Amino acid sequence: MKKNIRMLAFDLDDTALDGQGRLAPETREAFIAAAEAGIEPVIASGRSFYSLPEDLLDIPGVNYAICSNGANLFNVKTKECLEAFFLEPESVDQIVKLADDYLDTMYLDAFTRGIPHSDRRLLDTLLANDKISEHRKKYLRKTRRAEDDIRSFIREHRTELDCINYNVFDTSLFDELTSRLSSEVEDIYFTSSIPELIEISFKESGKGPGLRRMCKYLSIPLEQVAAFGNADNDAEMIRIAGAGYAVANSSQVALDAADIVIGPCWENSVATAIMDIIDKTSIIP
């Protein structure tokens, strides 16, 4: 019996994009084919809206995005924010206060209404930082607005923050920081997409809740969603979808959440899986 898949929810970095952050022609064509078959392709990313790849937003049929780990939903063609959750101001103060104990070992990012801002110190030291991949360095330089005093910027915008990121290059601090966030900061959700990043947003965020809200907006049941991801922040989305896919280069958390493990991102495995879904799907209005 054919499945009735009506939505594709797909992570970007190291999932739909290859290991260098590029969108392969095969993947682009697969998204177009899905849309033409009546299946809604939906971006589901930890990226802010205004750091999504332009060549992805231009694809016919890709109309919606879950951004900032579910903190907001966007119509990508009109750039309308359909729904947004902001960090509570008290949470923002607690997050910054905690970060002040690691002033010399951690850099902050802040997303305000889909716009990404970073500590200028992070951007100024990218070239010498051997813990960041070359394609991530390029991505950060291209998308981030540099702030000379990121902490003051965060405090000034404390009522309109989609998320705050801790860039932690001493990964021995990771468990300590996540433990302190759990015990010292209220009303937050936090996750990680790469080993040196802790991504913090409002407690009702997350790609899983974001997917639920997008399904409600588009009137598509969760069981008619195929979700693709690779990292810890994708796991809940993968788990709750009707069909959950993890690429082979995924974290163990994402692999454990998946119904199906496909090839690695650099083999255009998402494109292959989408074409297989199209072939096996019977759209029922």
For this entry, give a set of tags.
alpha/beta, 285 residues, 24% strand, 8-stranded mixed beta sheet, 2 domains, globular, 12 helices, Hypothetical Protein, Haloacid Dehalogenase-like Hydrolase, Chain: A, domain 2, 14 strands, Rossmann fold
Instruction: Let me know the CATH homologous superfamily of the largest domain.
Output: HAD superfamily/HAD-like
Shape: globular
Percentage of residues assigned to helices: 25-40%
Low-confidence runs of at least 5 consecutive residues: none
CATH architecture of the largest domain: 3-Layer(aba) Sandwich
Give the structural class: alpha/beta
Number of domain modules? 2
Instruction: Report Rg.
Output: 18 Å
Give the N-terminus to C-terminus distance in angstroms: 17 Å
Q: How do the SSEs run, as a string of H and E?
A: EHHEHEEEHEEHHEHEHEEHEHEHEH
Q: With helices defined by DSSP (H or I, 4 residues minimum), what is the helix count? A: 12
Q: How many distinct beta strands?
A: 14
Overall pLDDT score: 95
**Major β-sheet, in short?**
8 strands, mixed
Give the strand line-up of the largest sheet: 5-4-3-2-1-12-13-14
CATH topology of the largest domain: Rossmann fold
Approximate strand percentage: 15-25%
* CATH hierarchy class name of the largest domain: Alpha Beta
